[in-house]
Amino acid sequence: MDSAPSRFRYARGIVADRVQPLTVGRSLPYATAVTAPTILLVEDDPPLRTLTARALQENGYLVRPAGSAPEMWLAFEAGPVDLVLLDIMLPGTSGIDLCRALRRESDVPIIFISAKGSETDRVVGLELGADDYLAKPFGTRELVARVRAVLRRRSGEVAPAEREKGVLQFAGWTVNLPRRELLSPTDAVVDLTGAEFDLLVALCEHAQRVIARERLIELSRTRLGDSSDRSVDVLISRLRRKLSRDGEAAPIVTVRGVGYMLNVPVERS
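Structure for Regulatory protein VirG, as requested:
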């Protein structure tokens, strides 16, 4: 498997200077961005790559195309990337392996695109840390809608609670809303994807109340498939792992047949 070359780590430092420390790919809020969001399109099919790039460009995005893993890593040298559209079936290193490598290096938003559209494939993509999954064939309107949704989540423009200045605290954990940051009881920063953070905020805003899966999708604006798939279940599982410490289970309980609940009080300051 190709690993992220040293030049990518160097590029990461450049991007970090532009936005937030140790962060790659987070776009500036739309109101202050000086350029259109840049999308790295990794697709090995030339005609489809051309059509997809054209559709995105016509909707105001800058597109940086790549047809393989080496081309993708080189594309990061050209400047900051706001989102990666990543095909799973690539020559050489697969999109799955590239996603793993990217997640070790950054939290740049990733949308998988694949001809495999089964529930199992979507779940695998989400468990790897992707922000969304788009099955082929897809239309321009759906593609652009999903790209916009993921970028809105990352720019902090989705839910009112995320736009508010304030801090949420529960069981020693701290959720900094303006920074979109989770701190552990030992003040260590916990890496969360945009979808994970949105879901955690939704749980905190309705602490000690059971929330149905469909309602969680609505509250967190998580565009990861419809309410019949396991997208929320996967995100909850990932959050539980990250909120578990010293043998203590995460304070998220499952109410069978209904949904989920953060079963500790939350304080806002």
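Confidence is low (pLDDT under 50) at residues 6-34, 156-163, 223-229.
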